[in-house]
Amino acid sequence: MGLLSLGSPLSWEETKKWADHVRKHGIQQLINIYRRLKDRHGDVLKWGDEVEYMLVVLDENNRTARLSLKGNQVLEQLEKRERESPNDYPASWRPEYASYHIEGSPAKPYGGLMGHFNMVESNMRLRREELMSLLDKELGETAISFTSFPRLGSPGFTDPQVECTPTVNTASRSLFFPDAAINHHPRFRTLTRNIRERRGEKVCINIPVFQDKNTPKPFRETFPNGDIEATKAAKDGHIYMDGMGFGMGCCCLQATFQACNLDEARYLYDQLTPLCPIFLALSAAAPVYRGYLADVDCRWNIIAGAVDCRTREERGLEPLKNDKFVIPKSRYGPIDCYLTPEAEKYNDIELVLDQDICQQLEDAGIDRLLARHFAHLFIRDPISLFSEKIHLNDDEESDHFESIQSTNWQSMRFKPPPPNSPIGWRVEFRPMDVQLTDFENAAYVVFIVLLTRVILSYNLNFLIPISKVDENMQEAQKRDAVRQGLFWFRKEGLPPSKCQHHQCNWSCQQEEYTKMSINEIINGKAGGFQGLVSLMNSYLETVEIDVDTRCSVQQYLRLIQKRASGELMTTARWIRAFVQNHPKYKYDSVVSGEIAYDLTKVSDEITKGVRSCPELFGTLNSRTKVSLPPVVHKNLRKENPDHDILT
After folding, report:
1. How far is Cα 57 from Cα 69, in angstroms, rounded to an integer?
2. InterPro entries from the entry (predicted)?
3. pTM surpassing 0.85?
């Protein structure tokens, strides 16, 4: 989760005093990096993934599933093993926001060989086995890569159970998410407190509830002790959440790639941007929040609300008086501008930026587009600062730059090289919900990394206006967006013929893109867009690749293809079907503790490969050993006139 400095955290009032200092030196640190490394060339492809896990305790006797708060202890043991075997240990482990959270990556990056695609799933499996080896199976402890735990924020969702009141939760003031569930690393509680204090009130997240036939209408929540702030903030027909943990307590799947130089990194950043909403929808895995079925399938807007530190003035609710900018988005959201000259004409939304910083960057030799990008990121304040990290050597360190760069949690991240490091210019792909199994997570990561090779080899162009990407990001989160949604996408990805118009005006641009289904984008349509997989298969015919790797890659491509066509369910659709067909479900949108237990138990068995799930994989995941009981198959497949999601 970005920069993880250690030290003595400052309060928001103290941090605020140093905000201009951090911005000033952060920009100087960026300028120094740029001047040293702007002409760096010849870096080879290196790439890796990040998978996040939740630690869960399954109590079979009481039929409960809770989140284990022993993540810090487990992480200490994992990091100890990593230190003791630096050359042959399979994983690198890092803390995440919550005490039940752990992030794992390959210990060393993968490279440019096609055979490396065949290493991803096995490495993910080794990571999971390493993590599982430190859990007590007799106590029901396990690790599941849920995007969102179904009862997160419900009474007693942690193990051990802890008191949860706004008085006890001094960092978040949450009614539902205890501070005890926040990771012990000082960064995370500091972020939580400073975001709330900078905002001037608790964060406020409202997502639409799924309106089932017995769901109260209007759906209206009541809160402990008639909490006035919650009662005022909560919307009818919505699930209300009030803490950073509801967003940053989710899990995701990310991939980072090193480019050969600065220009290639910018090109990949731009070309992958229109694909972010497509893969947000394809990876959708989060339809349940605080024990209620939601009418969305993804985590994205929940996290955006969970870290929204904008003041009332910055949100446009009051006239600007103490703040400098009205800022349209949370600091977690889709990107706001492309970086390459070819893409500039598609930057069609007004970019809020610090003009002084932009001029300083241009004066230092950074071109206008890149200067505007960073000047936009630096309209934000630092929200986590340590007393030991205030006065730094700008030639040798980049902590002030990273303190703002790494807390702009956008769908793509453009990453300059760290100072004094062999690491080059990188791009991070950030939109995806994490999947239950290593097979699925490997499939999504391999698909994206392989696609970067196809983009570079064929000089593909997927650019559409940024405003349309924003629109797509909202479409991607809707219930069953893969089957029901339509997304703006470019009609032709291969280099276009010369424009026949006398000038390439806005009407010409409009002809370049249209609305498509996810199925058309991935699998193509006769007489229309050829489909991403068709382009990828054409590329695979031109490269040397061993038979075993080709078979693995084809399995991964087929999984994505079948998810795109609707033949296989997304994780969100499967979870929704499981809940709605559970014998204890009352068609009232409530995911009870017993339903959550059964869902968690079955998910754990699917994760471990002891239970097959043809609805998610078909016959593609060869590691599974036994089938689901016939009654479960029947329930998941049956036609239900009240629920369109199973058709």
Report:
1. 10
2. GCS (IPR004308), Gln_synth/guanido_kin_cat_dom (IPR014746)
3. yes
